[in-house]
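Task 17 of the worksheet. Students: predict the tertiary structure of the chain below and write it out as structure tokens. Keep your answer in the requested format; marks are given for formatting as well as content.
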Amino acid sequence: MTTHLPSINRSHRGWFRRDWRLYAMLVLPVAFYLIFCYKPMIGVIIAFQNYNRFKGMWGSEWVEFENFRFIMGMSDFKFALRNTLWLNFLGLVAGFPVPIVLAIMLNEMKSVGLKKLSQTLLYLPHFLSWIIIGGMVLQIFSPKTGLINATLLKWGLIDKSIPFLTKGPQWQATYTVVGVWQGMGWGTILYLSAITGINPELFEAAKIDGANKMQQIWHVTLPGIRPTIVVLLILSVGQMMNISFDRPQILGNPQVLKYCDVLSTFVYRTGIQNHRFDRATAIGLFQSVVGLILITGANFVSKRLGEDGIW
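Model answer:
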């Protein structure tokens, strides 16, 4: 074994001497992740402390799991946890198939100009801030002055306004539809890329065998993008505990607080506004641990079903 070590070391030195520019390019991204992603993870220890800003992270009193017990005993936390899981589940069920369908439809378009125009219109909502989208939602779904209610009332199709934003179940449906509309174009990009990677000869063989367009989609296109679908589904399941702050904060209102209060808004209200950073950190750590369990479980199930998974 010792006779091979010098040659291995020489080959490693040769690789480094040859590709040192590539290794040098890694310095900045590695430093970025070490400083801004891994170093802040040390701060999770304040979840086990009665954190005092004046004493600092290393001088505060340790309380073990007291913050977790306190938070999980709060009724508002249970509402926020339930709403987070339910809204993410609605978004997954309603929104996950939409980019797949759109990608297939765009791929089948023959007109290049119409295809580019459709892609631009689909991608545009992803680049709008939720402040702008919130204003649009208010103009469209407002109970009194919203475009939909005003039009339906004027035409005599309804007797009273539909409470899109003032009743819990209706608000959750509106929240889900707006989220699907905002994100469907961005997800379409990934599936279009996967479709372009399918061997064109498979489609030609299917045509020779007499397969129509729907049969080609079912037997060639969908199996070709199945690995991408599985990976994105696993990642989506792993995000069931995480929900953005701006979307429920902007679209929500006090009338539907029990339906729109999620973990991110609960952390802001309970942890940040009340200056209890230890409790806010405890909630974040709880979300991360549960998310890790979910993504690991989803990956295990996919492997048991014969898919590749993500590791």
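Marker's comment: DSSP finds 15 helices and two strands in the chain. The mean pLDDT is 88.
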